[in-house]
Amino acid sequence: KQWYQRRVAITAGGPNKGIVPITCDELFKTVEGNTNADLKYCVSFSMLEIYNEQVRDLLQKQNPKGGLPVRQNPSIGAFYVQGLTKQVVGSYREIEAKMDEGTSNRTVASTAMNATSSRAHTVVTIQFDQIKKNEVGEETKRTSIINLVDLAGSERAGSTGATGDRLKEGANINKSLSALGNVISALADASTGKKNVRVPYRDSVLTKLLQNALGGNSKTIMIAALSPADINYDETLSTLRYADRAKQIKNKAIVNENPMDKLIRELKEKKEKSTDCDSALIPLLFPVLLSPAA
Fold first, then answer.
1. For a Cys staple, 147 with which of 172, 213, 248, 293, CB 3.0–4.6 Å?
2. pTM of structure
3. DSSP string, 145-205
4. Closest to 78 measured CA to CA, from 168, 155, 3, 147
């Protein structure tokens, strides 16, 4: 598969952009096209990898021994990485520079199947804030978080010829992919109406960090990379089953906004709707009220 975070030259006609560059490019086209003086945007970028169940900040050359700690926010229940670099960016070029910086710090190694095999899962997170002034001049904020995840491929020790550190890395990759598969299966069961389904988010670092992206207030898309080679038949079949399970997850995404702002907006909408209904009823009521006097 192609490394999705970079522009990869696969044709003589020039480089093709990956998913992250296309997403960021479209994002900043919207920002740059804004003509509303009361509306502004803020975009921040972070990049991490999960290597042997440890989180490494890819925007830093040095990481603490044992990786960055993963904590849980007690108020909302979501998991986050403590101490992770979050860089505010003002253009697509800045994001591209940060991606190149993070990519240079990724953990790759050679196996019998791939000379530059990913030895960790990579997560790019883009936070998009929309800040708008309301009628009284107060600022309200809506937030969207985009998680773009490059999953390291499942490995069979016999196929990769892995030994030593490579074997340990492969085992941890398979363990986290298995945990993710269990989470996807549980969410799919819940989507079909099955009761009392326990979703095992805590079984791996990957599923902790993707909790809200998978089963929370979100929309999830999975892109499966397949090989046409018959030697990879088992991996291809496993990947297709994996993607089919993910397709069964059904979430209902709503706008992320301040609860107080949301309450005020809903009350205003209710008032406007009530006023519209009253205005529509007046022409119908007058003939009824006037008919006895006539």
1. 213
2. 0.73
3. EEEEEEPPPP--HHHHT--HHHHHHHHHHHHHHHHHHHHHHHHHHHHTT-SS----GGGSH
4. 147
